[in-house]
UniProtKB/TrEMBL annotation:
Annotated ranges, domain ABC transporter: 47-294
Species of origin: Cupriavidus malaysiensis
Keywords in alphabetical order: ATP-binding, Nucleotide-binding, Transport
Protein name according to UniProt: Urea ABC transporter ATP-binding protein UrtD
InterPro entries named among the record's database cross-references: ABC_AA/LPS_Transport, ABC_transporter-like_ATP-bd, ABC_transporter-like_CS, ABC_transptr_urea_ATP-bd_UrtD, BCA_ABC_TP_C, P-loop_NTPase
Molecular-function GO terms, alphabetical: ATP binding
Classification via Pfam families: ABC_tran, BCA_ABC_TP_C
Transmembrane segments: none
Gene3D superfamilies named in the record: P-loop containing nucleotide triphosphate hydrolases
Keyword GTP-binding: no
Keyword Hydrolase: no
Amino acid sequence: MSAAMGISKSVEAGAQGDAGLAESGDATGLGRVLEPGVIDVSHGPILYLEDVTVQFDGFRALNKLTLSIDHGELRCVIGPNGAGKTTMMDVITGKTGPRNASVNGRVFLGQTIDLMRMTEPQIAQAGIGRKFQKPTVFEQHAVWENLELAMKADKRWWATLRARLDGSGRGRIEQTLALTGLEDEAYRPAGLLSHGQKQRLEIGMLLMQQPQLLLLDEPVAGMTDEETMQLAALLNGLRGTCSMMVVEHDMEFVAALAGEAGKVTVLAEGSVLAEGTLDAVKRDERVIESYLGR
Ligand SMILES: Nc1ncnc2c1ncn2[C@@H]1O[C@H](COP(=O)(O)OP(=O)(O)OP(=O)(O)O)[C@@H](O)[C@H]1O
Ligand SMILES: [Mg+2]
């Protein structure tokens, strides 16, 4: 899969002069008009949460949470049980929103897309893919067909356009099989895959929809050590294809994703407790106190 599959749909920092593809000028001078589906990341962040509060019966699951993820970043989020990590993903994806909960604050995809005003399907169409813990693949269908079905389920106009340009989309399926390390399993029914392979297939299915931002909530739960490191390699290989936010408790997995320089966010009691390199947050007294223990 080429980097162009994901990143090219965003207006990147410093690329505004190259306006032909991504945006069109407005002769009336009323401002620029982005193509539908283009996320404006000209200021850096692909995702921006500001002062987000979510209350369940008066209990604040998120408490003035402010957080931003840069375009192209792979951000790991850690924190104790009940910190609000899943709730944060529910708000980003529209599963929890002003329509069904007490939610305040701002959640933006790029500069211009106000996720709080959108429904769950609209947010998915805008380019946010979410991996839930339990893999949901079509067990009776071959791996190849699972990827094909995921591609055909993509109703966005550019996807249709691209499918036409790509012919059958065969090339994209082959690229995704290679990325997910499932080439040898292409014609096996998905039901026969190991847990780790099913998880990778589901990520492949999400990739067929060409997300700009991929959210993964505890993706290595139930995996063997070997499967865990395979998934780390897969996600590291997706850098340049899409931005990612990964919630995990498995610190070896987090270390494999964050490396020495990657930023890690620690959530506790619905807010950011600490943010920095994994080494720095591990040494933070408040993080040791509330999460890692002594
Ligand atoms: N629909 C809901 N109704 C009431 N309380 C909820 C609801 N969803 C979450 N909560 C509460 O909000 C808090 C945050 O939960 P959340 O699932 O976001 O934590 P988490 O950080 O994902 O934890 P874990 O690491 O265990 O997955 C918890 O106290 C939880 O009980
Ligand atoms: Mg959770």
